[in-house]
Amino acid sequence: MNADTDKKPAVVNGGFSLRGLAEEAGLAVGLLTRFPLPRFDVKTSASLASSFWVFPIVGAVVGLVGAGIMVIAAIVGLGTVPAVAFGLIAMALVTGALHEDGLADFCDGVGGGRDRARKLEIMRDSHLGTYGALALILGVATEAALLVETVALGGLLPAGAIIIASASVARLAIAVPLFVLSPARTDGLGVSLNKPSSVIGVAALVAAIVVGALCVGAGVLALIVGAGLGATIVAWLARRHIGGYTGDVFGATVVVAKVAALAFYILVVLAP
User: pTM of the predicted model, to two decimals?
Assistant: First the structure.
């Protein structure tokens, strides 16, 4: 995190304020990316929960970086597959592979633990296990294959727009475990990022729809449905195996939701 939130903030405005919006944006960017931000004290009621409306916007920025690198790589003649690979690398660098790390830890815990306590213990372990490695390989490979297919069916620039929209919608999908589950631990990101208000949730949905509509028009609905299905699967697994959500569940949700969104978009919108 780039914000200094170790001490209790001195709240200067509990309602709407430009500073509050700026602090929420800073919290979201600091959590979801590795973009350098100046350190700041939170002096309003801004929190990770109240910053959730910014998540789809941050996702769109991450997608914009990946789409831009992919398009440039393709234009200079590297070919579709290498271009897609460079786009994925760019997005991983921008986020610090935050979501992929969560996917790996979540799959290690779900696959390797015999009971809830052991699964949570494994998820907190930084070592990569077989299930996590396999999830990373299959997840990245599937996303790359879907993007290559997207370029083949829709063209290079439209595929770039789809990357931006899907990255935005994938961050919105974190709302599924947030709203249907409770924290599985008493500490960690799962507690810090608690359930946002319904107003914040609606604002996040609107942000994702606007971003998606600007990129792919009505096709954003297919992306949202696909992402929702993927997020629901992760939430169901989290409830069954660890009884709630953690930061790793959020990371897994983003990756699975993005893959599911791309697949659903190809089936519904692009497939001949």
Answer: 0.91
Contact 159, 266 (CB under 8 A): no
Q: Which residue in 115, 128, 144 sits closest to 240, CA to CA?
A: 115
Q: Are 182 and 240 in contact (CB under 8 A)?
A: no
> What is the rounded distance in angstroms from the CA atom of residue 102 to the CA atom of residue 126?
10
Q: Domains of the chain: which residue ranges?
A: 1-47, 57-270
**To which residue do tokens 């579709």 refer?**
80
How many whole angstroms separate alpha carbon 240 and alpha carbon 235? 9
CA angle 194, 5, 178 (to 5 degrees): 10
Q: Are 21 and 50 in contact (CB under 8 A)?
A: no
Contacts of 270 (CB under 8 A, 6+ apart): 149, 150, 153, 154
Burial 72-107 (b: 16+ CB within 10 A, else e): ebbeeeeebeebbbbbbbbbbebbebbbbbbbbbbb
- Over residues 135-146, the pLDDT tens digits come to 999 999 999 999
